[in-house]
Design goal:
It is a single chain. It is built from six helices and five strands. The chain has a five-stranded mixed beta sheet with strand order 1-2-3-4-5, with helices on both faces. It is globular.
């Protein structure tokens, strides 16, 4: 529905929440907001920016409050970017690979006080389940590194996930073998997409009820 029928569908509480924090950090990095604006803007915009209902689970009865409080705490403790040289903010790019185009949007690229080049990606996940999941997510940043190398003449030194709900950063030293693995994964994924004609839905109750962009008229729920 998304890629073939080009139907946008609807958002969900988790994506809307992540987009709002991304938006605030983007506006700060571009100089549109000051450090002192962030908390007030978050409090003012939150309900309109995240209109969807959060699900209730056995682990958390009021997930909306939990997410809100965690985002608020991150912004209260955010110290700014005075120690870094900002190079890219929410930069969208196209990169040609073989006979297809990789499209990406980089949250932040900067040089730190020691001159290290860093790609930073904001994540609303609280943590990665394990090293394998972290490596799978890192493929995205490794593919972003291709654009950084093309524009700045060198690969980044560090790939950084900023898990803002926990105010925790995860740094991955750049490794060319991991870049090659990410490229191989991307090529194989494109090959699988091109060869696939079976779109049988994978039914997951939580995803279908809360996350799927087309959950309002999903045939698998009928």
């Amino acid at each position: 529905m998304t890629y073939i029928d080009h139907k946008k569908g609807i958002g969900n509480c988790f994506s809307s929440y992540g987009l709002e924090v991304h938006s605030i950090m983007e506006r700060y990095a571009k100089g549109e907001l000051t450090l002192w604006d962030l908390v007030g803007i978050y409090e003012w915009e939150f309900d309109a920016a995240v209109p969807e209902k959060f699900p209730s689970t056995k682990y958390c009865k009021d997930m909306r409050k939990l997410y809100y409080d965690q985002g608020l705490e991150y912004l209260k403790n955010f110290a700014g970017y005075d120690d870094r040289k900002i190079l890219e903010v929410e930069s969208q790019f196209d990169y040609e690979i073989d006979d297809w185009t990789f499209n990406g949007v980089i949250d932040l690229v900067f040089e730190d006080k020691d001159g290290k080049l860093i790609i930073q990606d904001y994540k609303s996940k609280s943590s990665f389940k394990n090293k394998r999941e972290q490596a799978e997510y890192a493929r995205q940043l490794y593919l972003y590194a291709l654009f950084v190398k093309k524009k700045y003449g060198r690969y980044p030194d560090i790939l950084r996930f900023m898990m803002f709900r926990k105010n925790m950063s995860i740094d991955i030293p750049f490794d060319e073998s991991s870049l090659n693995e990410a490229l191989s994964w991307a090529r194989e994924t494109v090959k699988e997409i091109r060869e696939c004609w079976d779109f049988t839905p994978t039914c997951d109750e939580f995803f279908s009820e809360n996350l799927c962009n087309h959950r309002e008229y999903c045939e698998s729920k009928i």
